[in-house]
Amino acid sequence: MLREFFRQQLGLPPVYSETGAQVDSLIIYVHYLMVALFVGWGIFFIYTLIRFNRRAHPKADYVGVRTHASSWLEGIVAGIEAVLLIGFAVPMWMHNVDHYPDPKNALNLKVVAQQFNWNVFYPGSDGVFGKQDMKLISNDNPWGMDPADPSGKDDFAPLNNEIHVPVDKDVIIELTSKDVIHSFKVISMRVAQDAIPGLKIPLHFKATKVGVYQINCAQLCGSGHSGMAGGKLYVDTQADYDKWFAAKVKAAADAAAAAAPKAQADTAKPAGGGAS
Ligand SMILES: [Cu+2]
To answer: Which helix (H) or strand (E) holds 90?
Structure first.
């Protein structure tokens, strides 16, 4: 009950991920300590105003406190802080690192942040991302996809500001940035991770409730920073997700099939303007 009271007073938004509840617990425990300190110091302050008022003590006492009570109190507060850190924060972190979901059973995505949107990559029906190479980047191929890699054939074009995941399934996102530092933050999942150019940083969560959740950028990344809050995380039922995914895979295959004859025609054209 006290916990629920704190949740409301702190304005903690609803949490819809498996590990999010632990994050909230830590926030609440830290605030228990802060309230105890606030009340304790407040009482001590009022006590000193009365006990050492000028009328009772016209001349200052240059020795001051003669007991070790304050040292003991300081020690107890430091002890509680150590318990919070060693007993709660570190184990929570260890749990999240040790219980890293098995990529084989998880939905694996890539998210590339840029000014000012989120590019979301899905590996297609084979679950394997196609190879990318910086050398292949061009106007027609902004992500440097390797056309020779068969595992890339079913990858669909990166989605803009839109992530779909099934409910109750581990999701691993490999996060990076195309330009400046951004931060991928989904408050309802209690997930926040900086996206840093040149680094691929994994994050994971498991959504527990179907719904649409806002994605925010938590690093001031430029003039359009606030627009990155337009990102949406759709948590679907497995059936809805499968339907959405199948439609995307089919659309990608249709687009590839439509592009194939054109590419063949292009390569069939004689080079250098043609003879005859
Ligand atoms: Cu940003």
So the answer is: helix 90-98
Q: Over the stretch 69-112, which tens digit does the pLDDT of each residue have?
A: 888 989 998 998 899 889 888 888 888 777 888 888 899 999 99
What's the rounded Cα separation, in Å, for the pair 192 and 243? 29
Per-residue confidence band for 276, with pLDDT thresholds at 50, 70 and 90 = very low
Give the burial string for 147-161 (b: 16+ CB within 10 Å, else e). eeeeebebbbebbeb
Question: How many A from CA of 231 to the centre of ligand 1?
Answer: 11
Q: Report the separation in Å between the CA atom of 218 and the middle of ligand 1, taken as the mean of its atom positions.
A: 7
- Distance of alpha carbon 213 from alpha carbon 205, whole angstroms: 13
Q: pLDDT, tens digit, for every residue of 6-19? A: 888 888 888 999 88
CA of 263 to the centre of ligand 1 (A): 36
Ion ligand 1 neighbours, Cβ < 5 Å: 182, 217, 221, 228
107-114 and 201-206 beta bridge pairing = unpaired
How many angstroms separate the CA atoms of 71 and 212, rounded?
A: 51
Comparing 154 with 271, the larger pLDDT belongs to: 154
Domains annotated for the chain, with CATH where assigned, are: 2-58+66-98 (no CATH), 103-259 (2.60.40.420)
Yes or no: say if 25 and 198 are a contact pair by the CB < 8 Å rule. Answer: no
Gap from CA of 225 to ligand 1 centroid (Å): 5
